[in-house]
């Protein structure tokens, strides 16, 4: 499973990237807004040091403007993927962009039908939002299983990015369900490598080692 970082925070991305665990980055208008920096400036900065796809989202919703905007965003760096919302105009834009070799990430996917349509339209990535489905009292992980089955059934090449991941369990279950990629918020990422029993184990090994050294002095 590839790990993408779901943030536009450069410091957070640098820290995880230095661990060798960042395979790419996804951003959206809300994440850009949170950083309060110029859209192009922050995306090109991220793209300059992350060796993997960086998703940057269009902010228009009609086909013509989306395609125009996507063509411009795609020029910012070689590893840019243009994020397109899952709408009728979005599907048309994904189709047009895929034909001219611009990689797309079709976002805001909440059903198998939407994912299947985006994949058929030629999306490089499709992004089902697990957490937001759970928020509705439904099962976000089930959608990952179902989309994986459907893509495999028909040999469709889009990769599934499990998005809107909120918990360790979401990540683990998305991996078990076969999502190609998980896009993980920076703050959650840091929680994934810790476990109270690991911390406790280190403390007790350290204590026993210190006692052994004392005894054998
Ligand atoms: O990648 C999509 C993600 O940013 C949405 O997450 O937590 O706002 O549902 P969330």
From TrEMBL:
The keyword Cytoplasm belongs to this UniProt entry's keyword annotation:
yes
Top-rank taxon = Bacteria
Reactions mediated catalytically = D-sedoheptulose 7-phosphate + D-glyceraldehyde 3-phosphate = D-erythrose 4-phosphate + beta-D-fructose 6-phosphate
From the Swiss-Prot or TrEMBL record, state where the protein is found.
Answer: Cytoplasm
Key words, A-Z = Cytoplasm, Pentose shunt, Schiff base, Transferase
The biological pathway it contributes to is: Carbohydrate degradation; pentose phosphate pathway; D-glyceraldehyde 3-phosphate and beta-D-fructose 6-phosphate from D-ribose 5-phosphate and D-xylulose 5-phosphate (non-oxidative stage): step 2/3
Active-site residues (renumbered): 83 (schiff-base intermediate with substrate)
Q: Which Gene3D superfamilies match?
A: Aldolase class I
**UniProt-listed Enzyme Commission number(s):** 2.2.1.2
Function recorded in the entry: Transaldolase is important for the balance of metabolites in the pentose-phosphate pathway.
Name the NCBIfam families for this protein: fsa_talC_mipB
Q: Which family does it belong to?
A: Belongs to the transaldolase family. Type 3B subfamily.
Q: What is this protein called?
A: Probable transaldolase
């Amino acid at each position: 499973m590839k790990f993408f970082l779901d943030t536009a925070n450069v410091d957070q991305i640098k820290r995880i990237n230095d661990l060798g665990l960042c395979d790419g980055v996804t951003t959206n208008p809300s994440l850009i807004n949170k950083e309060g920096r110029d859209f192009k400036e922050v995306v090109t900065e991220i793209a300059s040091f992350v060796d993997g796809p960086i998703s940057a989202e269009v902010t228009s919703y009609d086909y013509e403007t989306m395609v125009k905007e996507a063509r411009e965003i795609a020029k910012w760096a070689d590893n840019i993927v243009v994020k397109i919302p899952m709408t009728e105009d979005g599907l048309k834009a994904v189709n047009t962009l895929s034909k001219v070799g611009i990689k797309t990430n079709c976002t805001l996917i909440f059903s198998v039908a939407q994912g299947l349509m985006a994949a058929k339209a030629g999306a490089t990535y499709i992004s089902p939002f697990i957490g937001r489905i759970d928020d509705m009292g439904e099962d976000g992980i089930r959608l990952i299983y179902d989309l994986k089955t459907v893509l495999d059934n028909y040999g469709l090449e889009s990769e599934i990015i499990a998005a809107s991941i909120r918990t360790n369990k979401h990540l683990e279950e998305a991996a078990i369900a076969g999502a190609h990629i998980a896009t993980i918020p920076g703050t959650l990422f840091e929680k994934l490598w810790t476990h109270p029993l690991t911390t406790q184990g280190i403390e007790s090994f350290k204590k026993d080692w210190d006692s052994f050294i004392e005894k054998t002095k």
